[in-house]
Design goal:
Elements (H helix, E strand, L loop, with lengths): L1 E3 L2 H13 L4 E6 L5 H13 L2 E6 L19 H10 L4 E3 L3 H4 L18 H4 L3 H16 L3 E5 L3 H13 L5 E5 L19 H6 L1 H15 L5 H13 L4 E10 L13 E9 L2 E9 L12
Parallel strand pairs: 1-4, 2-3, 2-5, 3-4, 5-6
Antiparallel strand pairs: 7-8, 8-9
Bound molecules: adenosine monophosphate.
């Protein structure tokens, strides 16, 4: 496994491999890796000849009062895990490499970036789209892997790839959960014992939404009201938002007649967690259930 820290070296290392016709797979991360990330890495290894993983805590996607400084980091452990997965390249640039003095450009995916998480995190998706387009240009992958955990991010990046005519196959993999249902997240380490227990309220409310939907309920408002009731009953939880939107264009939905995304953001103490599920009238179910 080769660890690369500069853009020039990364491009130079991949150039001959591409020339030889090898396919390049790419998994962008912010590190502090868990099984959600490693699932993407394994899928990438299976699908392509060369696997590139980036580890970069992107300052551009954090607001001034957000957790950029505290964001958990453990590069040595990350590298050990990636080595164990048979990754070929880890791209681990400094912020100054990605954003040298004079950097001015940003990518906006208007509309999609302003709803759901974009409402409470203004500028977040501009930062995400900008760094991912840079990483795409540096790595020039054939295939890139993202998690459904960040459902809005996946929709935005798919839109960007299409709008900007990038020849990249974007694949989105199901949410990986802890055995009790909590969606894996690097931020789960912030939770105290009581908060860890309270954090299950996200999964429980999504399960209730799925149960109502399976029982024939199609009115988004009724399902959302029940989700809010469940979250409201957990003293350590404070709702940021709970919404049901069209899976593809993220527009609000009243009656669920096409695949709909139930998306949640909830503060557990000071930690903001997100989770989601798809309600599918067609019956295709892409949710991974815990054992
Ligand atoms: P992050 O390091 O949080 O930026 O995440 C890197 C990638 O891993 C993103 O595509 C995330 O959607 C994905 N990811 C994070 N957590 C999970 C999870 N629990 N299940 C599946 N994918 C995940």
């Amino acid at each position: 496994m080769t660890i690369v820290t500069t853009i020039r070296e990364m491009k130079a290392a991949l150039r001959p491999l591409k020339r030889d016709g090898r396919t390049i797979g790419f998994v962008p991360t912010m590190g502090f890796l868990h099984d959600g990330h490693l699932g993407l890495v394994r899928a990438c290894r299976n699908a392509t000849d060369i696997t590139v993983v980036s580890i970069f805590v992107n300052p551009l996607q954090f607001g001034p009062r957000e957790d950029f400084k505290e964001y958990p980091r453990d590069p040595e452990r990350d590298l050990r895990l990636l080595e164990g997965e048979g990754v070929d390249f880890v791209f681990q640039p400094e912020a100054s490499e990605m954003y040298p003095p004079g950097f001015r450009t940003a990518v906006e995916v208007s509309g999609l970036q302003d709803v759901l998480c974009g409402r409470s995190r203004p500028g977040h998706f501009r930062g995400v789209a900008t760094v991912v387009l840079k990483l795409f240009n540096i790595v020039q992958p054939d295939v890139a892997f993202f998690g459904q955990k960040d459902a809005q991010q996946a929709v935005i990046l798919q839109r960007m790839v299409e709008d900007m005519n990038l020849d990249i196959d974007v694949r989105v993999l199901p949410i990986v959960r802890e055995p009790d249902g909590l969606a894996m997240s690097s931020r789960n380490v912030y939770l105290s014992r009581d908060e860890r227990r309270a954090a299950l309220v996200l999964f429980r409310s999504l399960e209730e939404a799925r149960r109502m939907f399976a029982g024939g309920e199609r009115r988004a408002g009724v399902i959302i009201a029940r989700i809010k009731e469940i979250i409201g009953a957990e003293p350590l939880a404070r709702l940021d938002y709970a919404e049901i939107v069209d899976r593809k264009n993220l527009e609000p939905v009243d009656l669920i007649t096409r695949d709909a995304l139930v998306a949640l953001a909830v503060y557990i103490g000071r930690t903001r967690l997100i989770d989601n599920t798809i309600l599918s009238p067609g019956g295709t179910d892409n949710e991974t259930h815990p054992a």
